[in-house]
Amino acid sequence: MFKKILIANRGEIACRVIKTARRMGIKTVAVYSDADRDALHVEMADEAVHIGPPAAAESYLLMDKIIAACKATGADAVHPGYGFLSERESFPTELQKNGIVFIGPNAKAIAAMGDKIESKKAAAAAKVSTVPGYMGEIKDAKHAVQISNEIGYPVMIKASAGGGGKGMRIAYNAKEAEEGFQLARSEAKSSFGDDRCFVEKFIENPRHIEIQVLGDKHGNVIHLGERECSIQRRNQKVLEEAPSPLLDEKTRKLMGEQAVALSKAVGYDSAGTVEFVAGQDRSFYFLEMNTRLQVEHPVTELITGIDLVEQMIRSAAGEKLAFKQSDIKLKGWAVESRVYAEDPFRSFLPSIGRLVKYRPPAEGTKDGVTVRNDTGVFEGGEISMFYDPMIAKLVTHAPTRTAAIEAQGVALDSFYIDGIQHNVPFLATMMQHPRWRDGNLSTGFIKEEFPDGFVPREPEGKDLITLAAVAGAIDHLGNARRRGITHQMSGRSVEFAKRRVVKIGSKTVLLEAMGEIPGPYYVSILDPAGEPTKTLEITSDWWPGEPVWSGTVGGAEVAVQVRPIANGTLLSFRGIQAPTYVYTTREAELAALMPVKVAADMSKYLLCPMPGLVKAINVTEGQEVKAGDALAVVEAMKMENILKAERDGKVKKIAAKAGDSLAVDAIIMEFEGK
């Protein structure tokens, strides 16, 4: 077995590999760029080596620096994680030349399946059904349009060396094909150092299902069941689960057998994934093979009990698989949410900055429910513009799908992040979405269900009452605490009922709260006439200043995020984000008379929607533009974003130039008019 492993990666996957290596008694070496000098994976590893500037092309993608770090530290093996060098055929070859073991598949398997064009050819040769497309190399944008016209729209333009949703575009017409090819190629070059792209038919209303395979160097290959990865945004997976709510045992067996057969055909010998596009009728087609560990591997680990990183290490060390196919049993259900540094209220654009607060839910197993959080960040750390915007992967496992979703919802409500924008409100909303809960999924789910973008859920029904009860209990605790400190109302019980008007967003709830510190408290919901309609028992050990209120409301487990705002609190719960104010009846009367502040009109400006680097300004001062015209290109977190005109107009002034690093809402250009 290896004595020391170098992890040629960063972030949460580097931390994940370190945890398994530590459990196996193997020392670890981290590598880091200037941007990652204080990163968590650097802190966790036994040793760390600096490898260059922040840009991946000048650090994490340079094989010679990785090999030099191995030699300097005496590392006898390298785990590549995912992304970066993990699917580059030349990497294990160069490592082998230097007497270093690659913890992943052999170079031949990577060549056959890691390259998406070559994998399509190999699958076709093996008579595996594949999605129609053009498998040759595309010369230029004109060639891409010609091919797309022949295949028929819509088409998917994909980077051959791609992964993680980078270098992918869907085109519904010739203009989008030309534009999409140029963007996909540019992203592929900056992310993978390889700008080759291919085009295939885009199957509408599909599901994305993948089979986890596991092989050794003795010809043994098994599969560990499937993962459903259909909830995607911009071709980037957002939610994953295992198993899939679509498959039955017959389909699972067929997909698994096909994945194993294909893996054996290319001599695959590590932990990889064979991906399929599936119809709602359970028909399926081979899509591609990812020869490296997948981001969503934790859901498979939780339903099988198998540590995939450990198996990769053991396979690389020459050990035989310890399992046969008949040994693999799928137990329970697992759901994974990808927590990203992005603003769901601004079309999910990237967000960077300091994690002023980072308080993930507690990990562990209780009452048959497991909560796991794979992360590579810490409170006080920085989210950089140079890398993928992932903050963490939150995973829950329970005996049933419904229980796993419920546990995921509570865990997301407990996940407190401040300092940057993040997608937790969106993920929490998804856990309550009836279509998601029914398992009626497709890769177009987010676009179909949120066509106008994401907005927080409105508080209503049971959720409204729960939030009002929590707000009433918080207010009651605060009042009781202040009375105790100041010795007011001496001799009178804190159980003295106090009528309050709770304003949650646009909704109003009348209630009374009673109880003594430390509780339980009792909140009575009142009708407009002041008569109680229900009384809820509230239990919690929450204390003012804590970011998450957790406890029970009417016997149900509840977690609510609490952020102070002027004269009130911002409560976040199940995707609801509502400013909440608790008034006496007189205060409510006066509050209703206060004027509403109107935001300034910024419609004549093009504002930078995210912190990022200006790649191009596509217009000049005085130029007439039409709605839909490209105005500028801004790059953030390895993604290029085209900013387009919302309406016809004339450019009055340009305030930014290519190469500028802009903050969110920085002015890029101004248009004539009011």
Description:
The protein has 674 residues and is α+β, with helices and mostly antiparallel strands. It has 5 domains: 4-103, Rossmann fold (3-Layer(aba) Sandwich), CATH 3.40.50.20; 132-201, Dna Ligase, domain 1 (2-Layer Sandwich), CATH 3.30.1490; 208-449, ATP-grasp fold, B domain (D-amino Acid Aminotransferase, Chain A, domain 1); 461-591, Glycoprotein, Type 4 Pilin, CATH 3.30.700.30; 605-671, OB fold (Dihydrolipoamide Acetyltransferase, E2P). Helix content is 27%, strand content 34%. The protein contains 17 helices and 40 strands. The strands form 9 sheets. The protein has a 9-stranded antiparallel β-sheet. It has an 8-stranded antiparallel beta barrel with strand order 25-26-27-28-29-30-31-32, surrounded by 4 helices. It has a 5-stranded parallel β-sheet with strand order 3-2-1-4-5. It is globular and about 80 Å long.
